C-alpha cells in the first residue's frame, strides 16, 4: 500500500496560515479544512497561542494532520533586533510550543520574511528549517476574492506554498473558495513535510496525562487493486497497553468502531466505498476512555476514486 496522494500523483498545494490562533476563526478554519480532507501548516505567534490555547486545543490541530511551526514570540522583525535578542525571540517561541505539544518545532517562518543575522544559526543552533512561500496574495489588504484567485492561478505549480493568515474573516472565504475550486480540479492539500519533528509522535504521547483526550493521526493508503485503507496511530494515557477504539464515518453516515489500536498504538482497516467509486470523505475519531472529555477528531481524508 502507498499513500493515496503519491499513487495518484495529484498536484499539491501547501496552505499555510500565519499570526494565529484566533479564538473564533482558527477553529472554523480547522472544520473547513476537514470538509475537504485537507492538511495545512500553521505558524502561530508565540505569545498569542500561549494566551489563547491550551495543550488540548493545540493537540486537536495536530490530531487532524496539520503542523505547527515557529513564528517568533511577538511577531518581531528580526532584522531590527540584535543577534542575541532575535535568537531569544525564536527560542522563547519554540519553548512555548513545546509546552503545548510536547516537542519543539522543526520549521520556522520569519515575520515579514526578515531573518536578520540568525539565518546561519537557524539549522545548526535552533534546529529548524526555513519555511518560505511561493504565493502571497496579501489578503491582509482585504482584496476582492476574485483578485486572490486570479493571483493564485498565475502562480500555479505543483508544490506551491500559499501564505494566508488565520486571524481574518476574509481568509475563511478565500480558503473555502480555494479548497472548492482546486479540489474540483484534482489538487490535494498537504502540510509542509519539513514541519514534522522527528520525535513528534513519541513526544506527543509522552506529554499526554491521564484523564486527557487521546492524541494520534491518520493516513490514507491505496493498493494497486483499487483497495483503500485508513492507517494511523492513537494513544490514550488511560489505556497505555493499547486496544483504544477507533471510530470512522464515510460521507456523514453514523460513525462505527472500525478498529482498535495494537500494543504499538497503531491501527489499520479497509474502507469500502460506494458502488460508483466516487471520491468520498472519511472522518476518524479516537474514543476517549478516560473519565471525562470528548472523542478527539483525527481528521478527515478524501478517499481516492476507485
Describe the secondary structure blueprint for this structure.
Layout: E1 2-3, H1 4-8, E2 12-18, H2 25-35, E3 41-43, H3 46-52, H4 55-63, E4 67-68, H5 83-101, E5 107-108, H6 119-124, E6 129-130, H7 145-153, E7 160-165, H8 169-184, E8 188-189, H9 200-207, E9 215-222, E10 228-235, E11 245-250, E12 256-260, E13 266-271, E14 281-286, E15 297-302
Parallel strand pairs: 2-3, 2-7, 2-8, 3-4, 5-6
Antiparallel strand pairs: 1-9, 9-10, 10-13, 11-12, 11-14, 14-15
Helix pairs in contact: 2-8, 3-5
Characterize the structure shown.
The chain is of the alpha/beta class. It has 2 domains: 10-195, Glycoside hydrolase/deacetylase (TIM Barrel, Alpha-Beta Barrel); 210-302, Sandwich (Immunoglobulin-like). 29% of the residues lie in helices and 23% in strands. It contains 9 helices and 15 strands. The chain has helices spanning 4-8, 25-35, 46-52, 55-63, 83-101, 119-124, 145-153, 169-184, 200-207, and strands at 2-3, 12-18, 41-43, 67-68, 107-108, 129-130, 160-165, 188-189, 215-222, 228-235, 245-250, 256-260, 266-271, 281-286, 297-302. Strands 2, 3, 4, 7 and 8 form a 5-stranded parallel sheet that branches. It has a 4-stranded antiparallel sheet with strand order 1-9-10-13, with helices on both faces. Strand 11 (245-250) and strand 12 form a beta hairpin. Helix 3 (46-52) runs parallel beside helix 5. The longest helix is centred in the N-terminal third of the chain and has 19 residues, at 83-101. The radius of gyration is 19 Å and the shape is globular.
Question: With helices defined by DSSP (H or I, 4 residues minimum), what is the helix count?
Answer: 9
The radius of gyration is 19 Å
Spatial separation of the terminal alpha carbons:
14 Å
| Unreliable stretches | 1-7
Largest sheet entry: 5 strands, parallel
The CATH homologous superfamily of the largest domain is called Glycoside hydrolase/deacetylase
Estimate nothing, just give the exact number of structural domains: 2
Name the CATH architecture of the largest domain. Alpha-Beta Barrel
User: Averaged pLDDT, please?
Assistant: 93
Helix proportion range: 25-40%
Give the overall shape, derived from the CA principal axes. Answer: globular
* Share in β-strands: 15-25%
Structural class: alpha/beta
